[in-house]
Amino acid sequence: MGANESLPGDGPVPEMHHYYSKFMRECPSGQLSLHEFKKLLGLQGLDLQGDVYIKRVFDIFDLNQDGFIDFLEFIAAINLVIRGKIDQKLKWYFKLYDADGNGCIDKKELLSIFTAIQAINGHTNMSAEEFTNMVFQKIDVNNDGELTLEEFISGVERDEDLMELITKSFDLSNVLKVIQSGRRHSI
């Protein structure tokens, strides 16, 4: 995002009523299913990798794991994306990568989620393999082929280039813009 662009909620009073009316218009039941979530974001018909990624994002937003995103979960997710401190965002990214939920990210998990993200965002300067190898080379300090949450957060916070790359690659503000405007923007 450019310096002069802003997202709703940047000011002192968050525009929750805007999100609430949009949420209720798109989802009168107050419960957003995965199918409705994809429809809301204009992300139907993705390839398998893209679908995997969107399902992971949905599952992480679905805090109580009931298979739906309710309004409170939706707002918690939006707040994290807009206002979250960097370590909160890194924890969120870690959960996104840790597909099997074992508390560690291995190369296969990172590769598969980055491939999926590329399928959606479409723009990147390096292949998923290059990205994965670079991340592990920079922050897998004990060379065990796995990253713990601590290794991940301290490694990314230590490395400005990596921080910028991860922040850009996994920037969800595009998702929020789609939700806000109600239509798909080309990036």
UniProtKB/TrEMBL annotation:
<protein>
    <submittedName>
        <fullName>GUC1C protein</fullName>
    </submittedName>
</protein>
<keyword id="KW-0677">Repeat</keyword>
<dbReference type="Pfam" id="PF13499">
    <property type="entry name" value="EF-hand_7"/>
</dbReference>
<dbReference type="Pfam" id="PF00036">
    <property type="entry name" value="EF-hand_1"/>
</dbReference>
<dbReference type="InterPro" id="IPR018247">
    <property type="entry name" value="EF_Hand_1_Ca_BS"/>
</dbReference>
<keyword id="KW-0106">Calcium</keyword>
<dbReference type="InterPro" id="IPR002048">
    <property type="entry name" value="EF_hand_dom"/>
</dbReference>
<keyword id="KW-0479">Metal-binding</keyword>
<keyword id="KW-0449">Lipoprotein</keyword>
<dbReference type="GO" id="GO:0005509">
    <property type="term" value="F:calcium ion binding"/>
</dbReference>
<feature type="domain" description="EF-hand">
    <location>
        <begin position="49"/>
        <end position="84"/>
    </location>
</feature>
<feature type="domain" description="EF-hand">
    <location>
        <begin position="85"/>
        <end position="120"/>
    </location>
</feature>
<dbReference type="InterPro" id="IPR011992">
    <property type="entry name" value="EF-hand-dom_pair"/>
</dbReference>
<dbReference type="GO" id="GO:0001750">
    <property type="term" value="C:photoreceptor outer segment"/>
</dbReference>
<dbReference type="GO" id="GO:0008048">
    <property type="term" value="F:calcium sensitive guanylate cyclase activator activity"/>
</dbReference>
<keyword id="KW-0519">Myristate</keyword>
<dbReference type="InterPro" id="IPR028846">
    <property type="entry name" value="Recoverin"/>
</dbReference>
<feature type="domain" description="EF-hand">
    <location>
        <begin position="127"/>
        <end position="162"/>
    </location>
</feature>
